[in-house]
Structures are given as C-alpha cells and as structure tokens.
Fold:
Amino acid sequence: MNKDARQIIEELRDQIRRHDYLYYVLNQPQITDQQYDQLFTRLKKIESEYPELIAPDSPTQRVSEQPLEAFDQIAHSVPMLSIDNTYNPDELIAFDQRIAKALAPQKYEYVVEPKIDGLAISLRYEDGLLKTAATRGNGQIGDNVTQNIRTIKAVPLTLLNAQNAPQTIEVRGEVYMPLKAFQQLNDLRAEAGEQFFANPRNAAAGSLKLLDPKITAARNLSFFAYSVGQISEPIADGHYDTLQRLKDFGFPVNENIKKADSIENVIKICNDFTKKRLTLDYMIDGMVIKVNNLVQHDLLGSTGRAPKWCISYKFPAQQAQTIVRSIDVQVGKTGTLTPVANLEPVLLAGTTVKRASLHNFDELNRLDVRCGDTVLVEKAGEIIPQVVEVKKEFRPDDAEIFKKPTICPSCGEKIEVRTKKRTGKKDEIAHKSEKTHSYICTNKNCTTLLKEKINYFVGRDQMNIEDVGPSLIEQLVEAGLVKNFADIYKLTKEDIVELERIADKSADNIVKAIRKSKIIPLWRFLAGLGIRHIGGQSAQTLSNYFGTIEKVLSVDEDELKKIKKQEKDEKKLLKNKLNRQEIGKEEHKEKLKELQKNEKLKDIGDEIIDSFCNYMKDTKNKTMIEELISVGVKPESSQKIKSKEKLAGKTFVVTGTFTNFSRQQIEQEIRDAGGKTSSSVSKITNFVLAGENPGSKLNKARQLQVKVINENEFLQLIHKKTSPKKEGHLWE
Ligand code: IVH
Structure:
C-alpha cells in the first residue's frame, strides 16, 4: 500500500469536507467553485489510481451507480411527530397560556424558527458515519432513502468533530429545493414537454422518491437540521444549544433562528418574517415556535400526534397582482368544462404563475372576471393558483363580459348544462350562489375528453400504469390507436415503436407496465373509470361492499339506498337519544364511532350512489367494462390479491450470495410475492435470508432471535423448487 497516496487522499478529503462546511453551514466559502472542482477532480484521479483506498464516506462516493428496485422501510426509533398549527396571534397567545399553565411556576423561553417547506428526514449517524436516512412516512415507519440523501452535499457523510459527537445520533431536518434549483428544474421540464412540479416541496419530495440516485443528485436539493431523534448521550440542555452543536457537527442550521423571552416577542418575530420570507431563496410556509428547555419538553409531553412544546404559525396565503390576458375553457376527465385565466406572468410563492383556475362558470360570474382585468391571485394550499379578487377600479372600458360556452372548445359539439342545488359544504367553491351549474361535453368522440379520461385511468392512484404518461397518450390517441380504455391492453410493442421518439427498450417497458397492471385491486379499477364524484376513498368503500366486479355490474340501486337509509336512521336515532339526554356526550361519541366502524357505505352519500348507479346502468359503460375484462384486466378485491401473495406482510433482510439468483433477483422475488426487503436487521424483520458468506447481519439476526432461512427454505416458502437435474434452473 502506498502510504503517500493514503495521506494525500485523506488530506484532500478533509479539505473538501472543510470547504463543504464553509459553504453549506457557515455560508462563507473561502474558495471559488473552480478551485473546489479542482480539489475534487484531484481526489477522484488519485482514488481511481488506488481503488483499494476508496471509502464510502469519501466525498467522491455520494452518488451510487446502482439504481434501487424499490425503497425498504425503516422503523423510526423515536416517532417523527407532526406540529399543530396556528393562524393568528390570538392562537399563539392561547398556546402560550397553555404552556404557562402547564409549567407554572417555572419560567421558560422560546426558540422561533422558519418553517421550511420541504420534507422531513431522519439521518442516523453511528460512529460519526451516515448510516441511514429515512422519510417521515407515517411517523413510525418511513422509506429508506439513504442512497438519495447521500447525494445532497449539504448533508455530511461523516460528522465533523466526530470525536465530540455521541456514538449514535439521529439528526432530523428538512430536505428542500432552493427556489433557483426549482425554477431551473421546471424550465428543463418545460423544454422536454414534461409536467411541471407545482411547488418546491413537491419537487423535493419527487426528487427523493426517485430510484436512480443519479437523477436525484442532479436536482440540487439542500438540507436544514432542526432537531434530534435518538441520541446515545445528551448534547445540550436546550433546543437552541442543540442546534449550535449540530452546526459544529457539520449540519446546516437556518441562520434566522432566534430566541424569544415572551410570546409578544415571538409574535413580533413572526410578523417581521412575513415580509422577510419573500427575500429568501427557499420556501417557508410559516414559523415554528418551540419551548427551549429540553427538560420542559418532557414535562409538557405530546398528544401522540404532535408535541405540546411546539406550535407552528402559518403565514396567510401569498397573493400577487396581475392582469388577465385571456380566458380559456378546459375539458376535464368527466367532460366538465372549466374556465382558466391566462395571466401576465407573475412571481408568486416561488413560482412564475401564468394560469389560474376560475373553478367554474358560476364562480367566474360571481367574480365577474373579464379579459384585461387586474386581479389578485393566491395559491390554494400553495399548489393551484386561483383568482380571488378583481380590482374593478383598474378595469379597461372595453373589457367584455365573458360569454359562457355553448359548444365544447375541443370538439365543437353542443354541451350539456346540469344544474344542482348547492350542498352547503364549507369547501364548495360556488358557495355564494344558490345553485351550481356544470357545463359538460358528452361527446364520446371528443379527443380532449378521451385523453383526459385515459390520463386519469392510467394514473398513479388508479391503474398505476407506470410508463404510460400524458405525452404517450397524446400520441396514442392522435394515431387512433387508443379510442377507449380496452385499446390500451391491445397495444403491441410494434404499435408503440412506430410512434415518434420511442425506442425499442421503452416500448418493451410500456408493454410490460401495461401487462403488469392487469391484475388490479377492484377499488383502483373503479376509481380509474372516472365516474363523477367517485375518487379513491369512495371506490374503496364500494369495492369492500361489492367484493367482485360481477356484483358491481349487477348493482341494485334500491338495495344501496335502503342500506344508506338504515345507516342514516341509526345515526339519527342515536342523536335523538343524546338530545333527550338518554345518553351522555361521551357515550354518544363512543356509540357513533362503533356505528361508523360497521357502516357498509361509509362516506358514500346519495349523490355518489346516484352517480355510480347511473353509470353502471348505462349499457355503453357496462360493455366497456366487459371489454376490459375480455382483454385480460382482472379487478379483484385487495384481500384476494394479498392472500395470493405468499409473503404478504413479511419483511426480509438478504445477506450473502445465492446459487439461483443474484442479490437483486432474489429481492425482486420477495417483492413479487408481496414481501418487503430491508437492508438492516431489526425487531420487525421476519426473516433473514442467508446465502453463502453472509455478513454481520447473520449475527444481528441471532442476537435479535430473528428466523434465519437458507435459499432452499426460501424457495419452499414461495413454492418454487430447484431442479434436481439442472441445478440453478427454476420451475413452478
Ligand atoms: S420541528 C416534533 N422545525 O414541518 C416536531 N419542523 O408541519 C418536529 N418543519 O414534519 C419538527 N421546518 O417536516 C420543525 N424548523 C422546523 C421545521 C419543521 C419545517 C416541518 C417538518 C414537520 C412539519 C410539520
């Protein structure tokens, strides 16, 4: 071994790490990007000459060459909780009163931090090295995104000053996409004709959920640390000092974090930040207010969902003023026409807004939006911008009232206007008018309508046909290859390679993805049909109720309505008992919960029943479903699909080498049989599958008394046997 090379490599790594720290943590770079690149290139060169010296924590080893097949799951050792929200100073004062009461007579102080709009990550370091990174998931178990997190330069692969750090430390924080990176990404997507990310949060989440870390690496994600999870020894007494320690260990901590000794000061900091946030190069959606003292955190405890020592203060939605250039009418998947305003581009909450929804023609009427109008736009849930107000004082004299359409803008056929009484629901858009009107294109040959329907059908929450996206559907419909859902399943590889810009390999993938979607949970199938008012939730209830597609097709409307009425009556009866004080509030709550648990048509209202039955009554729809079945689509109840999967609910850790499979193949076999794979052995592991030369995972399994099986036992488990004649060959 060449001692000099080892030394040079170590020095270069240390230098690069120091410059990462200066750049990402202290925001004080001391060298130019070019000088940094030179150091990096040098290190790479020497490492390529001495590959035996390459170590996983080297700055050159951030991007793994090997894409993942799927994400493992990681159980959080300390749950990742959520935060309760407040929206005005009064709610903050109420929070402070709760804290004062719970801690009295103790004094306390707060730490106020920007609430970064990205996604929460837990980074686990052992002996100073980044071991795993997991998303929040459901708070208890998240996705193992270590490969992708390693590509983020703001996340240290090794702790700085590791000698002062605990042996185990979980650092939690937010992965986010800086606004500049977000804009660049969307520009690139625009050029490639791909769909935009609605906001930096979605872009960050989408980038972390990619299986190929090389793509994640190109997305320029960044990170701020804001707390710790499991830790083998304490590092500070207070939250503020914890953050300072994290900085010393090499983590970027937001520079705008302040201490406040009273709630009045907290409110002042929040107010000051309402403006300041617009100058940042990342999105924040509010402030987080935390009690500083960690002993007081324990005293205050948590509700299970969120800690009581912490609250967020959400900023009001951001607004921007701009001008309406024109108003378009769009056709949606159920044929509903929606007016959309084309705007003079304006920067709003990190994105350039060019279009805004007007929801429906009643809303357009209520606001009286006209071409040329100056309007205020706002981001609802910070995703879809909408017009909230017209500044009538700026209206040009010649601005004409928008005329509602009488024909479909796509196919030119006459449209249908349906009127319905408003339901009075809080979130109903046209809440100001008594009735709502839907303008609907019912022309079965309308190509825009067809494309929308197909796009929805193949979507992630419906049939989930992975490689079939909007641009392919556009081509398929235009080429006349797809005229209905069933046509998708008749496509051959030859049909697809004929299309523009589709290579042989992609065509293969598309055909495979289509084939894979044939066995589908019934609820996904029902959701995919795009029946008015029927989304994932109601489709699941209906699927549980019917169980099979045959029963769906012979739906009895009277029976559904009878059941719905019974369920409503039972609730009414219970309410009456409460009103007559025959039962108390608590008992009512308990009994209501029990009733709801047993409801067959939970969350299915009359409107949904009507829509569903009307759809199923229509012979054209029935024929279309039958055709889908005849081309091989098999909607089945989720339980049935799961029970067919031999390894459903089982988690495996694979170690060593195998006779019949590569590591990737055997992990795929596990997933194909409904099992999960994980890279580390824990109490939730069901089996460790050990091949030849197993690693330390085998010892860990023995320690934790996890069942260990060999390749043959695994094959028996999935009912595959190795051939006695031809070793290594598998047959069913
Ligand atoms: S503290 C138990 N601090 O907000 C509380 N969270 O809406 C742990 N977030 O899931 C979180 N900035 O992803 C904390 N400065 C900050 C934050 C922050 C953003 C996110 C975090 C959390 C979500 C809750």
